């Protein structure tokens, strides 16, 4: 063996050992370490499954240990409390998250630079939300939930509201009213809905006080139902985002604020998502 071979052998061995070191380290990992890594990487999913199983077991146990008369409304209220609080916290973050992201996205859309991609993306957002609203309105019109339920009687002389008589024209009118709101703060509190009210003359006629030949038509009016006008929120956010983009330097603080708001809300939502376990158990 020559001197050159002897001098090269240590270097070759070092290279071979360097290539084998990662494989050796992998082989040296114990099953416990791999199991801990698997649990850490899938902690959210595993804990959620455990919460569902635990809730199922507790539900069966409570049903077997208590009588139906013992499971009162107050008892069920506190039993469902974790899940109700979880839903409320998610609703708390959905509105600012959507509004902030729509403002940022619409502010960054530049048709001159991005071309058709910007227009298609913005159009997809509008069409998807308008389409979902249309599906919801048409479904409610066809199913008519609560149509067989009698009017609430609170002991006052209030007029009877008949939402079941809505027509397709009313549904599309409500959709347009909700897309173009008249109150920037109100879009987060209520949405417009058409209602038909029986006037006082009609109530008297229904009691037989005006004769049987009296013809009374319901009065059409618009009211505000307590619900978030999500279409109006998206429209306002998109308009303000595009306006901020066109103002140049003066609009950058506005865009930066909503970018920061989006990051903060996402962080808060991630914190709230850890409550999925007790919520799923309830």
Automatic annotation (TrEMBL):
Where does the record say this protein resides? Membrane
What are the GO cellular component annotations? plasma membrane
Under Pfam families, the record lists: SDF
Primary place of residence? membrane
The domain of life for this entry's organism is Eukaryota
- Which GO terms fall under molecular function for this chain's record? glutamate:sodium symporter activity; L-glutamate transmembrane transporter activity; neutral L-amino acid transmembrane transporter activity
Q: How does it sit in the membrane?
A: Multi-pass membrane protein
Keywords of the record, alphabetical order, are:
Membrane, Symport, Transmembrane, Transmembrane helix, Transport
InterPro entries xref list: DAACS, Na-dicarboxylate_symporter, Na:dicarbo_symporter_sf
Segments passing through the bilayer = 43-65, 85-107, 119-143
Q: What family is this?
A: Belongs to the dicarboxylate/amino acid:cation symporter (DAACS) (TC 2.A.23) family.
UniProt-recorded name of the protein: Amino acid transporter
């Amino acid at each position: 063996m020559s001197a050159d071979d002897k001098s090269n052998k240590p270097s070759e061995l070092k290279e071979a050992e360097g290539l084998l070191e990662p494989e050796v380290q992998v082989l040296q990992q114990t099953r416990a370490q791999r199991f801990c890594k698997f649990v850490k990487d899938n902690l959210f999913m595993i804990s959620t499954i455990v919460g569902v199983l635990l809730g199922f077991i507790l539900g069966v146990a409570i049903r077997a240990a208590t009588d139906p008369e013992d499971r009162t409304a107050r008892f069920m209220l506190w039993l469902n409390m974790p899940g109700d609080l979880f839903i409320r916290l998610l609703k708390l973050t959905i509105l600012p998250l959507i509004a902030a992201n729509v403002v940022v996205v619409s502010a960054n859309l530049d048709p001159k630079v991005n071309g058709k991609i910007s227009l298609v993306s913005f159009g997809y957002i509008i069409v998807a939300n308008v389409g979902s609203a249309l599906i919801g309105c048409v479904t409610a019109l066809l199913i008519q939930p609560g149509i067989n339920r009698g009017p609430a009687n609170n002991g006052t002389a209030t007029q009877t509201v008949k939402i079941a008589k809505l027509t397709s024209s009313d549904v599309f009118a409500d959709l347009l009213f909700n897309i173009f709101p008249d109150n920037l703060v109100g879009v987060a509190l209520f949405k417009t809905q058409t209602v038909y009210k029986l006037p006082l003359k009609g109530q008297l006629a229904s009691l037989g006080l005006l004769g049987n030949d009296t013809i009374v038509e319901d009065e059409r009016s618009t009211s505000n139902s307590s619900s978030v006008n999500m279409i109006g929120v998206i429209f306002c956010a998109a308009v303000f985002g595009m306006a901020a983009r066109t103002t140049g330097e003066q609009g950058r603080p506005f865009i930066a604020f909503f970018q920061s708001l989006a990051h903060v809300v996402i962080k808060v939502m991630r914190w709230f998502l850890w409550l999925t376990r007790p919520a799923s158990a309830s």
